[in-house]
Write a structure and sequence with these properties.
- This protein is an alpha/beta fold.
- Helix content is 46%, strand content 12%.
- The chain is built from 19 helices and nine strands.
- The strands form two sheets. A seven-stranded mixed beta sheet has the order 3-2-1-4-5-9-8, sandwiched between helices.
- It is globular and about 65 Å long.
- It starts with a helix and ends with a strand.
Length: 463
């Protein structure tokens, strides 16, 4: 027997068993919910960080993951690997910056209790819909009634629709709608809004509102005059012919209904709420695992796209701008944060180098690191001893300077009491990660340049 044959026939080590368990399979029926090798939690975390984390070519469209477009989603296989490898059924998994809710869905699918927090109103609604079991027959009936009611309004009572459209929005929001939506599309969307207002039952109404949003905030096509609202900054296309909103709602409703079929069979608990990760509404040491992806230091502006649907659901442009200003990574700099919170040496050196190029950008970067320090401190507080926190983040380029977000966050976490078990690079599948796209002959933006890879930081909280 050759050495290679002997190697192939020998039983896998515990580390190899862990990797096979955590990284393979999709549904909970394919293998057990958790794996308990004779390895410490810290050793398991280290082994998982050494595994394959790119997940190119994998199916990410199962369960409720495709209910709504959302920029910079990580593949569900990424949180699933750590959930399987580091927790048991019934334990608590937290994503304090949940975005599209990928971690929470995977936690529920794996029989864990998932908790998701976010400040973005569309993210919160998306997370709530993704994790709320619904009566499919009741949802189907409500959706058909909304479509029929909207069609009837457009066909037989368009004057009522036009009256509501004229009276519904204050000046700034009205100007935004007129710029981005053609008159016929505005009537179609208002008819759907009026039909949605008659839906009873918050869970079903949230699901149908999200379906409504998904025909506006979408990767291609869509009903606005924007080229692409899923992963680029809005750019108005003068000759675009938007799709019929009523037809798109009916089509998307059927797809979203099918997407919920798998998640509704799961009985594990999920909780999603609007909350600030810098001050989490959670008691000390109640979480077993954290898997999250914070914003970049030079953040993707989620609200720039999300407001396209949120204004139709009752929010004003001004109120959404105020919400946006509260996000980590926003460019509104408060004097109370600047220079008053200690940061590790590497972060201070990078901020100093950036200040020599652009003082305002340096202030924004300091604000980002200070706010992420607050977030990491909260993560240390809510995590149980012998718990792990997985932070997936990319670096950023500001005025041509790589600000090394991943290494600075690792340093900040270590200064707060976390042990940094590893910082590993993963290459992005840009077609699935929905990163900002470039069109025509324009030069790539800084945000494009920095999004070919990101980093997975593995933190451990000791006993």
């Amino acid at each position: 027997m050759t050495e290679q044959q002997a190697s192939l026939s020998s039983p896998p080590t515990l580390k190899e068993q862990l990797r096979l368990f955590a990284f393979n399979g999709r549904n909970q029926s394919e293998r057990p919910h958790s794996f308990e090798p004779q390895m410490s939690k810290r050793e398991r975390l280290a082994a998982l960080l050494e595994g394959e984390l790119d997940f190119h070519g994998t199916d990410s469209g199962y369960a409720s993951h495709n209910l709504h477009a959302f920029a910079a989603k990580f593949p569900p296989q990424l949180p699933r690997a750590f959930i399987r490898g580091l927790t048991r059924p019934g334990q608590v998994v937290l994503d304090p910056m949940m975005g599209s809710g990928t971690t929470i869905v995977e936690a529920i699918l794996e029989g864990r209790c998932g908790i998701g927090l976010d400040l973005d109103p569309l993210a919160v609604q998306l997370g709530q819909v993704k994790t709320t079991p619904l009566d499919m027959d009741a949802v189907r009936l409500a959706g058909l009634e909304v479509a029929a009611r909207a069609y009837d309004l457009i066909t037989n009572n368009v004057a009522l629709v036009a009256q509501n459209l004229a009276q519904r929005f204050e000046q700034e929001t009205r100007a935004f709608i007129d710029y981005w939506f053609l008159p016929n599309t505005q009537l179609e969307l208002m008819a759907l809004v009026l039909a949605l207002e008659g839906v009873e039952g918050p869970p079903i109404k949230r699901f149908l509102q999200l379906t409504f949003s998904s025909v506006i905030v979408t990767k291609s096509g869509g009903v606005s005059r924007a080229r692409d609202l899923a992963h680029s900054r809005p750019h108005r296309v003068e000759d675009k012919v938007p799709r019929n909103a009523l037809e798109q709602f009916s089509t998307r409703f059927g797809k979203n209904l099918a997407s919920l079929a798998e998640i509704r069979r799961i009985e594990a608990a999920g909780m999603v709420t609007n909350a600030d990760t810098r001050s989490m509404p959670l008691a000390d040491e109640v979480v077993d695992l954290i898997v999250t992806s914070p914003p970049y230091a030079n953040a993707i502006d989620y609200m720039r796209a999300h407001k396209f649907s949120l204004v139709w659901l009752g929010a004003s442009v001004n109120s959404l701008s105020e919400v946006r200003s509260q996000y980590i990574g926003s460019e509104r700099v408060g004097d109370s944060l600047l220079g008053k919170t200690p940061l590790p040496d590497r972060a201070e050196e990078i901020i100093g180098s950036l200040a020599a190029l652009d003082r305002k950008k340096a202030d924004i970067l300091r604000k980002y690191f200070v706010e992420m320090r607050m977030t990491l401190a909260e993560m240390v507080r809510v995590l149980r001893k012998d718990g792990a926190a997985i932070v997936v983040v990319g670096t950023s380029t500001m005025r041509g300077l790589d600000v090394q977000t991943h290494t600075c966050l690792a340093d900040i976490g270590a200064s707060l009491g976390f042990e940094v078990v590893g910082v590993v690079e993963r290459n992005l599948d840009r077609n699935k990660r929905m990163m900002p796209a470039r069109f025509g002959k324009q030069k790539g933006s800084n945000i494009e340049h920095r999004m070919h890879e990101e980093y997975v930081i593995g933190f451990y909280k000791g006993e």
